[in-house]
Amino acid sequence: MISVLAHELTHIASGQPDSLRPLFRAIGRRAAIRTGLRIQGQRAEELACDLVGVMAAAPIHQSDAKLGSRCLAPPGPRLRT
Ligand SMILES: [Zn+2]
After folding, report:
1. pTM attached to this predicted model
2. What's the chain's average pLDDT?
3. Which of 48, 52, 59, 72 is buried deepest, with most CB atoms within 10 A?
4. Burial of residue 11 (number of CB atoms within 10 Å: 0-12, 13-18, 19+)
């Protein structure tokens, strides 16, 4: 959910003057070089917004993973009854 919100807020932040267009182009160019795919225009914008979404959600997933590993870990000797 956080990633979707961050994705959409990035579109909104770009606004009518397309102020984030240079960022979208740079991310699209780098992705195109690395993948060999053609990534321009709206595709570059969507990719950049997805990247922001992943970056926004990453700390939450890391925190959840730590919490989950603690919850799933077998109880230590002091916790056994
Ligand atoms: Zn989008």
Report:
1. 0.74
2. 87
3. 48
4. middle
